[in-house]
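Q: Please design a sequence for this.
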């Protein structure tokens, strides 16, 4: 049985969080993950507060376990969603793609555990000083918005910079990644890409199929020029965007090119114009299964790996 400070702090059985994937991580997926003993997280993405409220209601109807909400800080609705999570008293808030400093006090006062995603040591130190409950250290192997550093180098540096428990993210999809994260000093993991294959994840079947068929070199990063690098599957959209970005397309036109691309991938499975966010570990995700089974399988894999680690020492 692998236990950690994260389990006690969040009231969950297994130290596995589900990533807050915009357009994808809804109340249904979050409830399935929480019912499986992990922490399910509803993604606010760019959606208005009303949507988030509705998804919290759906999750609450499906589970009595703790749930979280991820706030994407580039969203025009971030202020609104920040207020709603306090009113609804979700157990956990995670944040991404920015600096959540201005909200932290309010959330802590509402009794919410605050777990920002950090991609640098400076941000980890600031969040620790402001009273965050734990940190998610996300390396650039992840899908979606990515930082500069890889998980391998980020985790130890964040662990050295904070007294808080650290949750590793980016490139983790099985028991090996879980065990490696612990070796680097983390006390839990967050996974996005692996949960794309969950039965309860209601992305378009084409999206799911692309993940199940993905190979090692199938992702790429676009959006660096506009300051928002994003990792996605190497599809016609990603190639076209990349060509435009390095071919000197004006900023505004480039932004228009990306508008609606996430929705087209998730809801329509549009191979030509959709942006299929996915992490570099997509190639090890090979089967569709219930979220609870994913969690159990990873814990069952990680335990013998961590137990046998001492055999290396003579
Ligand atoms: O947020 C994510 N992943 C995401 S957000 C998203 S939606 C989106 N849409 C359009 C453009 C950009 C994103 C899809 N995937 N992961 C968490 C994460 N946060 N990764 C890196 C960071 C991060 C980066 C900079 C956290 C803090 C930070 O601080 C910058 C600062 O303000 O100093």
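A: Design:
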């Amino acid at each position: 049985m692998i236990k950690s400070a994260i389990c006690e702090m969040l009231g969950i059985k297994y130290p596995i969080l589900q990533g807050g994937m915009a357009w994808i991580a809804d109340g249904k997926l979050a409830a399935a993950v929480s019912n499986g003993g992990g922490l399910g997280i509803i993604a606010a993405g760019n959606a208005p507060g009303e949507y988030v409220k509705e998804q919290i209601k759906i999750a609450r109807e499906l589970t009595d376990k703790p749930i979280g909400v991820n706030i994407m800080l580039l969203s025009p609705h971030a202020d609104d969603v920040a207020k709603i999570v306090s009113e609804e008293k979700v157990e956990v808030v995670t944040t991404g793609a920015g600096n959540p400093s201005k909200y932290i006090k309010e959330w802590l006062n509402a009794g919410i555990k605050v777990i920002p995603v950090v991609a640098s040591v400076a941000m980890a130190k600031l969040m620790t000083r402001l009273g965050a409950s734990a940190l998610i250290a996300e390396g650039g192997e992840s899908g979606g918005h990515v930082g500069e550093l890889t998980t391998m180098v980020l985790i130890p540096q964040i662990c050295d910079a904070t007294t808080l428990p650290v949750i590793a993210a980016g490139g983790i999809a099985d028991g090996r990644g879980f065990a490696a994260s612990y070796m680097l000093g983390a006390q839990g993991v967050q996974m996005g890409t692996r949960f794309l294959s969950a039965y309860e994840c209601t992305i378009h079947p084409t999206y799911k199929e692309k993940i199940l068929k993905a190979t090692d070199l199938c992702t790429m990063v676009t959006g660096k020029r506009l300051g928002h690098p994003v990792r996605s599957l190497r599809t016609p959209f990603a190639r076209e965007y990349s060509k435009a970005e390095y071919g000197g397309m004006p900023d505004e036109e480039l932004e228009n090119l990306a508008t609606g691309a996430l929705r087209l991938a998730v809801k329509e499975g549009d191979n030509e114009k959709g942006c299929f966010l996915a992490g570099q570990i997509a190639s090890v995700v090979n089967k569709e299964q219930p979220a609870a089974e994913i969690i159990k399988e990873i814990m069952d894999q990680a335990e013998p790996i961590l137990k046998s680690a001492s055999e290396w020492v003579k």
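Q: Thanks. Anything notable?
A: The mean pLDDT is 97. The pocket of TUI is lined by residues 22, 45, 72, 74, 96-99, 117-119, 123, 138, 144-145, 147, 228, 230, 277 (CB under 6 Å).
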